[in-house]
Amino acid sequence: MIRRIFIACCLAILSAETSHLLVQLKPATAQSSTNQNLIVAMTTSIEDSGLLDDLVPVFEKKTGYRLKKVAVGTGQALALAEKGEVDALFVNSPKAERKVLQGGAVNNRRLVMHNDFVVVGPSTVDKAKIQGKKNAVEAFSSIAKNQALFISRGDDSGTNKLEKDLWKQANVTPSGAWYRQTGAGMAKTLQVANQKLGYTLVDRATYIFQKKNLSLQVLVEGDKKLLNLYHVMEVNSQKFPRVNSAGAKAFINFVLSPEGQKLIAAHGRKEFGQPLFFADGGKTEKDYGF
Hints:
Oligomer: single chain
Helix content: 40-55%
Number of helices: 12
Number of strands: 10
Low-confidence stretches: 1-33
Structural class: alpha/beta
Mean pLDDT: 89
Order of helices and strands: HEHHEHEHEHEHEHEHEEHHHE
Shape: globular
Radius of gyration: 25 Å
Distance between the termini: 84 Å
């Protein structure tokens, strides 16, 4: 009789401890399998052009994910990916992206859309004499030669990376009073250029979206070097286990889906009479000669 009571008590204690252990483990398991928070690092031009206002509400409603955007320069976004601190990227510096891709920090890199860069400047006095030029390198050479005020983002963004490449091709090391850096995003840099009557390099979408507040006009456009390609990619969950891989895939699938591509292609048409981006789902850099 005593033996049966002892065994029963042991079984009861074991059952209680097992239940307690399961209660402790259950929340962590549930959180890892149903993480609805998604962190996407993206270039500031995607935010400054208003595109997120069209994409995010539809994405969240369709998938149930809550998207947290980190709008920074592409260089900073790539650095966050290399530390595993974000889940996905939406950026626009192909050369830098390929380097991070080769390093294994990201994967599933896909072309989403494109527009182009333009050089804008004062609508009154074109000190650099670049209006109408089709060669971006020649335009940059002329800006330096005439020491015309140039406002750089100076933030290692995709725009800043292209700018530095154009200076290099023009055999110019920009410095001195005529060259100033904001260390800020595209919208802020445009505002400074507008206030100081300077030149700057800007993606066309942000320029059009901000144009109502600017007196700057497009002076240089149409050079193939000014093509602006945007890619999405996942941060590698095998390298960084905490990454929300399912959420990253859902975001990439959405922006490349017919619905996502339609939203991208339509953005700006109604308000500005022209699209701010051109949808590229199914295409690659090779389609543009890269």
